[in-house]
Amino acid sequence: MKYLILSTLIFTLSLTAMNNKYQKTGDRNPCAAGAFYPAAPEALKREIYGLFSAIGTRETFSGVRAIIIPHAGYVYSGKVAASGFAAIPPDQGYSNIFLIGSSHRVAFNGASVYNTGNYITPLGTIKVNLQIANELIENSRHFTFKPDAHLQEHCLEVQLPFIQSYFRNPPPIVPIIIGSNDTGTIKAIADALKPWFTPDNLFIISSDFTHYPPYSDAVRIDRETASAIVTGSSEKFLSVLAREEPGIQNLATKMCGWSAGLTLLYLTEDIQGARYEHLMYMNSGDSPYGDREGVVGYNSFAVVEQKDPFTIEEEDELFNIARKSIESTLFGHQTASLNLSGLPESLRTPSGAFVTLYRDGNLRGCIGRITSSDPLCECVAEMAHAAAFEDPRFPPLTQKEYSDVTIEISVLSPLHKINNINEIEIGKHGLLLKKDGRTGVLLPQVATERGWSVTEFLEKTASEKAGIGKDGWKDAEIFIFEAFVLHEKK
Questions:
Q1: Which of 18, 39, 70, 93 sees the fewest Cβ atoms within 10 Å?
Q2: Which residues contact 283 (CB under 8 A, 6 or more apart)?
Q3: 436-488, pLDDT tens digit by residue?
């Protein structure tokens, strides 16, 4: 991690000169240029172009409301950051970008929003929406302006060259640094931001993940934290962060910008149809400049607003059906047969479904049907019971575990056979392979959570699920399907 140490020295030595200029102009000058990213404009442009080229063509999503991206030196985390921007159509017009990070250097109550000038980078000036900044300070006691929270903080700055390079017409920004670790205060910060959390504004959450554990430990912990974020549940996220990790060396944090991430989860919890797409994962050990003895983890996500085929009441009913099915065996409850006539048509329509159980962010069971002639409600009831008690990978669920379990329901579209793997879209399609009487299935979210390419998705489905070998997909029948994923709010 020599590069990180050198970067910190350069970063610190540059502050004094820049503070003087800041006090004179009111604009915030770059402090991380030449350390976290190139200081020369042309070199910076080439660096960013190379990062987007390195990640290749990625799926874009309509209705992106927010992204979570890392903020380390570009040689470590730049590709993962680029993957977050690449999820947004480049011609997408936003009115403002709310740029939110957690303070690395200054502890204080509440949040600091920059309201005295613009931000400067080697690529030029990026405007700050001073009107919104002032409104936040005037209308909420949890917002203030602390110059020292911004002058020495790199987590927002490193995102600015991406914004200036990726968007054809970069909108003004609202730079926010959170200094508090109190969840009640963070909830209040989120409440104050709600009037601006609208489809015409983009929220960018700047955060790295694990700090300094060995490579393999980082991969596991970062995956667990990512899985918690994908559920959209603040409670589940906090539970994963709080869980002890005995025996793991040098683990300083699971997510350095957790307060910024929690702010976003609070903002999205009440928005029907908001879903988290996991886009990419790497850590510093994957960079030629890093080692694998002590790494920093990097995840990227997009929050996408999709049209929900179910009302809130219908979703609640599905989860109620799933839990009653599990409880009938777990506690010996007598469960009456489903009264189909009393259920809405959306729950009576035949559909395949998978039910997945998680405990403390870890998989605890998953069983489903790709297709079903039974009504969706009956399929969910049967699959919930099977996930709890019949998944051969796990022992039957116990009463002690049950209170810690959260449920995920994936409602599936009809199968579509394809002849060209270019039709497969990561994050959108699940896979079913058929060959020699064997079948294998993986849901769309699995490929997204693991950061797989299309080829890797096919290989894993073939080898781990169908049992036809890594290359068995090449002469197998390939079917794709979509899944609408419902996350239980506990």
A1: 93
A2: 209, 210, 215, 218, 219, 222, 290, 295, 296, 297, 298
A3: 999 999 988 888 777 788 899 999 999 999 999 999 999 999 999 988 888 88
CA 342-348-350 angle, to 5 degrees, is 165
Structure token digits, residue 176: 């926010």
Tokens of 356: 């997945």
**136 contacts 59 by C-beta, under 8 angstroms:** no
CA 231 to chain centre: 9
Residues near 123 by beta carbon (within 8 Å), at least 6 away in sequence: 41, 44, 45, 160, 161, 164, 165
- Is 23 within 8 Å of 141 (Cβ atoms)? no
Which pTM was predicted?
0.66
Alpha-helix residue ranges (DSSP H) falling in 441-480: 444-450, 454-460
CA distance 110 to 400: 38
DSSP 280-306: EEEEGGGSTT--SSS-BEEEEEEEEE-
Residues 43-99 have pLDDT tens digits of 999 999 999 999 988 878 888 999 999 999 999 999 999 999 999 988 888 999 999
| Residue entry with tokens 């503070």 | 19
Q: Which pLDDT does position 335 carry in this prediction?
A: 63
How many other CB atoms are found less than 10 A from the CB of residue 324? 16
Largest CA distance in the chain: 75
**Which class for 178: exposed (0-12), middle (13-18), buried (19 or more C-beta within 10 A)?**
buried
Q: How far is CA 461 from CA 171, 357, 427, 429, in A?
A: 42, 20, 15, 13
R_g over Cα of the chain: 24
Q: Which residues does 442 contact at the CB level (< 8 Å), separation at least 6?
A: 430, 431, 457, 460, 461, 465
Nearest CA-CA partner of 381 in 332, 414, 348: 348
- Where do the H-state alpha helices sit in 145-285? 147-151, 160-166, 183-193, 215-231, 234-242, 258-268
Count CB neighbours of 73 within 10 A.
23
Residue reference for tokens 């957790």:
258
Q: What is the pLDDT of residues 187-198, one digit of tens each?
A: 999 999 999 999
